[in-house]
Amino acid sequence: MNFLRQALAVASKDLRSEIRSKESINASVAFALVILLLFSFAFDPTSDQVREIAGGLLWLVFAFAGTLILNRSFARELVNDCLDALLASPVTGAQLFLGKAVANFVILTVVELLAMPVFSIFYNVHWTQSIGLLFLVMLLGTWGLTVIGTLFSAMTVNLRLRELMLPMLVYPMMIPALMGAIQLSSLLVAGEPVGADNQIWFRLLVAFDVIFSLLALALVETVLVG
Amino acid sequence: MSAVSIQKVWKYFGDYPALRDISFDVAPGSCLALLGRNGAGKTTLLRILAGLSRSSKGEITILGQDARAQTTRRAVSVLGHGIGVYEELSAFENLKLFARLYGLADPAAIAADWLQRTGLDRVRDGLVREFSRGMRQRLAVARAFLHNPSLLLLDEPFTALDDRAIKMLQDLLRAALKDGRTVIMSTHQLREALELATDVALINRGKLAFRGPRTQEMLEDPTWLYRHYGEA
């Protein structure tokens, strides 16, 4: 219980700071909307092709917008050397990581929820028919992106070129989660059922989330302190 | 048992040895002034003691345990170059957050108490980004003291403090020493440090040049130590 309480204290601190500064959410929402708008000019929104690539487009937007949030996650701790104050406190690396991952997950989910109606309008896609399953895929995929991104955010926090390094390191690692989320989202947005042959993507997403969550919790202390 | 035991500690940054074979103990209840020129290795040593960095070689125990042990960190406080408080939170929220992270009972009451003790109660709900440098420093002092640490690691604690804040910090440190707590303080403000110190360590280019009790002649002439044991 104490583990979760301290992790939640870190998460609520990050969310409170973000609500006041709005620095990550403004940038990522604006970025997501601009990308959706630009792609809507590049494709014919009424074509079947759009529905086929809808999942891919959606998750690439989420992944790009997500790195703007993830870049700030540990970087905000550099102001006033707050990271040192946190690391010197009894909070473990795992608690710090979990708190930050939860805060990033909430912020990225808000960005996704704001982007979805815009996506629906620009691309003439009615994704509400499978809203429950699509929301589950969004949650699983977002947690996968968040876990990997938060760990690499900790890894790159002291690099001068962290804004460049984080996407370079994190996108290749996200590929399995993105593949699963893209396949399932494409099906659900097109209104097709998720058959038995596509269950593998659900399993892949869940396995990715579990494995990388455990790995990140185990490794983050070494990443932060050496 | 020593409050702090440092045995044959080396720290390399690449090939450069920032600390070279440092060994000394700090007795419980003592106040060690850690002195040295810029780049001597004082901050590096304090960061290792605080568990923020690992030594390349050698052994360090804090209160008989590893510096990164959770129980050690509960008993240690660090006040470094950065103030370690959040710009987007209020003074009260900052202290309440750290009280929660240290697992203290009734974090709100402790935060309110330390705001009052540091004279910040009138700006309790003001965001730190709106504070002057002196007010931020006082908040940082409150953050460092709020969990009643057994060992205080202070890196340039008097920097940016005005006269009243220096007096407040000195009073808090005297009270802490009277309670039997241990203080290790790195500073360039020799007079303030030597007034409080019971012991002195001087580091020159990563090597321990002097370690001993503070003497009357150091107090009368704060540069005495540098003239006798420092670099020319």
What does this molecule look like?
- The complex is a heterodimer of chains A (226) and B (232).
- Chain A has helices at 2-21, 23-42, 48-75, 82-88, 93-123, 131-156, 162-189, 199-225.
- With 226 residues, chain A is an all-alpha fold.
- Chain A has one domain.
- In chain A, α3 packs parallel to α6 (131-156).
- The two termini of chain A are 27 Å apart.
- The model of chain A has no long low-confidence stretch (mean pLDDT 91).
- Chain B has a single domain (28-55, 64-229), classed as P-loop containing nucleotide triphosphate hydrolases (Rossmann fold), CATH 3.40.50.300.
- Chain B has 9 helices and 9 strands.
- In chain B, strands 5-6-7-3-8-9 form a 6-stranded mixed β-sheet, with helices on both faces.
- The mean pLDDT of chain B is 91.
Determine the fraction of residues in helical runs of chain A and give it as a percent range: over 70%
Tell me the number of strands of chain B.
9
Helical stretch tally of chain B: 9
User: What is the SS-derived class of chain A?
Assistant: mainly alpha
Strand order of the largest sheet of chain B: 5-6-7-3-8-9
Which strand-content bin applies to the residues of chain B? 25-35%
Sheet of most strands of chain A: none
- Oligomerization status of the protein chains: heterodimer
**Distance between the first and last residues' Cα of chain A:** 27 Å
How many structurally independent domains of chain B?
A: 1
Helix content of chain B: 25-40%
Q: What's the order of the H and E elements of chain B? A: EEEHEHEHHHEHEHEEHH
Low-confidence stretches of chain B: none
Mean pLDDT of chain A: 91
Number of strands of chain A: 0
Shape descriptor of chain B reads globular
